[in-house]
């Protein structure tokens, strides 16, 4: 069934587990993710970036947003697990409005690049509109960018727990993404992974709402090596170890954003199949291996985040 993200995350927050939020661009990812979640009897969050909506709508945000809502809703009605659809990193009000109008379960307003007061003001406004339509809201504090080169970010880039408390109280936001040392993409750390667990713990204590970990891909060695075996070049790829994510879940993370791992798994399957089957030109056949690998990543995440069996 198609549900509000808040319903999924409040249950996770009360029971100390996390639900993965998987980014999709196309039907193949969606089908593979939903199959994996259904097999694991787990709740799941599907998310689309503004870029994904633009791609699906051929440039028209409302057309793209409606496409995803209709597709996810229709598929969700056939499955006996809670499924939510979320706008990831909403930065343009046009996309946020389109997602709310189309019927997304939740939206993220990412004004984390603005100074604290401005972020608070914009987030508060979006919360007002979204809540009026029954849509829940995620916001971000601190910045993910700038946490490169294995340099622990400056104090002002990671979330300030005291500010988080004020931010949550004043905006009425439903979930918060605190920057604690992760970054987006396949190249997260040059040396050892380093997250600020102490800071995360304080944010949870002071806000008590569901928290979100962005940049949470683990960049599985198996699929990186397989993609490289079939011609990809992903030298230096490194993600967040599963053990670190589990620690984050103990400390209050309830939504674990994952895009890169699915992309790499799909790439590995696609490259493998195409290079091994030179005569293949049926997309249902050459996407199949990629979809199987995406499903494998999905099922493994549902398992180690303890979302399996929670539908
Ligand atoms: O946070 C970023 C997500 O991985 C989505 O990326 O804007 O390329 O769709 P995208
Ligand atoms: P990854 O690039 O680590 O998969 O992060 C995805 C993300 O945070 C989407 O918002
Ligand atoms: Na998000
Ligand atoms: Zn993100």
TrEMBL record:
Alphabetical list of InterPro entries matching this protein: Aldolase_TIM, Class_II_FBP_aldolase, FBA_II, Fruc_bis_ald_class-2
Entry-linked CDD domains: TBP_aldolase_IIB
Stored Pfam families: F_bP_aldolase
UniProt cofactor(s): Zn(2+)
Keywords: Lyase, Metal-binding, Zinc
SUPFAM superfamilies on file: Aldolase
Name used for this protein in its record: Tagatose-bisphosphate aldolase
Organism encoding this protein: Thermosipho affectus
Gene behind the chain: kbaY
